[in-house]
Sequence to fold (336 residues):
Amino acid sequence: MKIVVDAFGGDNAPASVVEGAFLALQKRNDIDIILTGDVEKLKNLVGNREHIEIVDAKDVITNDDQPTLAIRQKRDSSLVRAFDLLKEKDDVVGLVSAGNTGAVLTGAILKIGRIKGISRPALCSIMPTLKDNGVMVCDSGSSVDCKVEHLTQFAIMASAYYSCYTGAEKPRVALLNNGVESHKGNELTKEAYERFQTLPINFVGNIEAREAMSGDVDVIVADGFAGNVLLKTTEGVAKSMSEMIKKQAKKNIFTMIGALLMGKFKSIKRKMDIDKYGGALLIGCKKLVVKTHGSANKENFCNTILQVATIYENKLNEKIEKIVVEIADKLEKNDD
Fold:
């Protein structure tokens, strides 16, 4: 299988992208990677490495570009060329980019399209938990204003994704809310709570943001606004806590000695490392599109590339299509 990577998307491109591709190929020799971007710059980094192809693209979509205009006008950009390859070539199974989030979402909709029956794709991110099992947040930023049918599809797709990615047969799906009681929340979450109980998922009720990292649930469903706030707040707290620990450890000679004796700090840092989970899958598209964060390092690019390979092998899109059709048939029979 081939995976196309926007080599000039992100703060650390193209060096970290190329290094991440090298790491991924060390772990799997059954994939080919296509890098899109300035061919001369990439040749100097790639050399004669096998299983890597370079497709020239002289332009770059920046974070200052307006997404829709950029996708339509910057046709020779590394991101648009990556989308063209994903759309046109059957053996290219997925795309990875750390570039402009809006442009990635827009390109996926305009050039790749949605799975039949899915009204709105959603970003599905993975956060660390206390139990080290990872929790998926869907939607984590693509759709700010949602209806109940959108949350319903997010729950179905994210549950299928978690099963494909981890092997869990019945992922525990929760609805993000301001209380665990069924009557809590706004009109959207109240209606969603009722609807979720009828779905073919393992719905375990509401969850509050403070319990998101407990590890007691596998999937958290939310509209894109609340989901993104949850994700960004969690990342910010994790980063702040890491900085606080470092500062305290360097306070004086005694704290430095204590920090050296407490090797647990390193294991905590590894547990809270978001890079090990790869990127956010734009779930619901006809082909796999994964958006990783702008400051992604080589480890993150490596894990995101491997993430695409795993999802494709486990036939996520086929499973989503099947579930959507089954639910549509069930609703049609109930109406009759």
Q: What stands out?
A: The longest strand covers residues 32-37. The chain has a mean pLDDT of 90.
